[in-house]
Amino acid sequence: MKNPILFALLLTLAGLSSQADKIKIVLVGDSTVTDNAGWGLGFKQFLTDDAVCTNTSQGGRSSESFRREGRWTNALALKADYYLIQFGHNNEPGKPGRSTDMPTYVSNLVSYVEEARAIGAKPVLVTPLTRRQWDKEHPGKIKSSLAPYAVEVRKIAAEKQVPLVDLQARSIELCESLGPEKCLEFSPPKVVDGTNTGGFDGTHLNAKGHVLFARLVVNELRKACPELAPVLRAEPVIADPVAKESSYDAVVSADGSGTHSTVQAAIAAAPDNSTQPFTVLIKSGKYEGQIIIPAGKQHLRLIGEETENTILTYGLNVQETNATTDLRFKGTGVIVLADDFHAENLTFENTSGDHGQALALRSDGDREILKHCRLLGWQDTLMINNGRLYFTNCYIEGRVDFIYGSATAVFDRCEIHSKNGGHVTAANTPQDQPYGFVFISCNLTGDPTPWINPTNTAIAKPARKPLADLGRPWRPYASVTYLNCEIGSHITPAGWNNWRNPTNELTTRFAEFNSTGPGANPEARVKWAGQLTAEAAGKMTVENILHGSDGWNPLRPAE
Fold this sequence. Notes:
The protein is α/β, with parallel strands linked by helices and 559 residues long.
């Protein structure tokens, strides 16, 4: 073709068209459907290039909690052609927040069927993978606690004329044909809080089980949905696929399918005084309680599966304690004492509320990086006590002094959200430290509050925002700078607060450069805070601010 641009465009359109023509399959279910602990990864190996599969299953979820958390809504938004739906394990009794009675289980599955059909998709019901529970009275036979759930799924499939994959029956047949000893080959070790109990997990699957049980699903699906036969391979592309979790040093999952069920246990497993990264994947879920990263656990990396759904939460303020509170760190959720800490895709929150100091995160280490994280609280949400830190694409919210401490920190392209006015920062920068907190290309936002009509008449008034300030000095030489930031209307025109001490005005190092937005008001700012020149602002780069004596640059790829 003579026109190379047109040729490239045609190739792009052809690629888009071929992608659109693929059959889309979505997997929905609990940990026994996931890629790392179930048959999901193996299932993908049986698909031809004419089909694409998205696995939305999540460990520890029941038919009820999967819906309640919005995961089913998200799955429907994928607009797939087929939805394979398997629940039961976490509907069983004894699972707080997940267990349901049988009528609720049935009702949920019926809703899954009807709602999938409502978007033009074809639901396929899958009976739950058997637990490998061997019957003591009948050696070699399985007595599955999930049998009643399988019965109900079969009934729903018949009544609603839904294709059925009877994985419960087929997995029992397979396991009984192999026998208890042979089944151990695809059973992961039973791990409790990072400790291998010496037993085997009879529910989940290791790498040897992914394809083995996926084959059962594929064979059943080929019969239940014969129109899918052309996109189902007779043999897998990869005979022994490895889930992404294998690339991590530890995996935390509340449902027990990871190497650890608590974050603290995974931290304890990291080697002491290491010079190499120890990377922990934290599966989606809410992990409650205080977490401490000791000084000896350098180069620890905590990577969340999803920022908004991987939550490290704590609910006490500094006036409160419980049996698990380290009294050195009252009112603090996560405490980082080690250097070279890295966090990504995590939410740190303190839910104590607006009544006193309640920290979501405290950092005392050096060379810390947080990417795509959320920090939620009210007073003193984030304490950066020492060292150098780099925050990028993070969301931080609070009310009183919710970013405070003596560290040098750069906040790069973050959203800083004030709740009901207050003070954004309270820096405690030492006099001989050139930089404190530097906000680069950040967006400062605030909560709106409704106008209250004192006469109770129907007079429409626009919402107003309680005023906050950019910061106040915790100590006299506090250093805070905003560069190229979008400032919301919630920020007071004066901009800064002297903390009821006029002598602070002689020593603080507060400044802005090129602030924009409705809260940017250089003419009205207090006279003791500065407006930087372009030359001075140009020197304030991430590297220059954070390099220190060791030349640290968080933007440079790790070697």
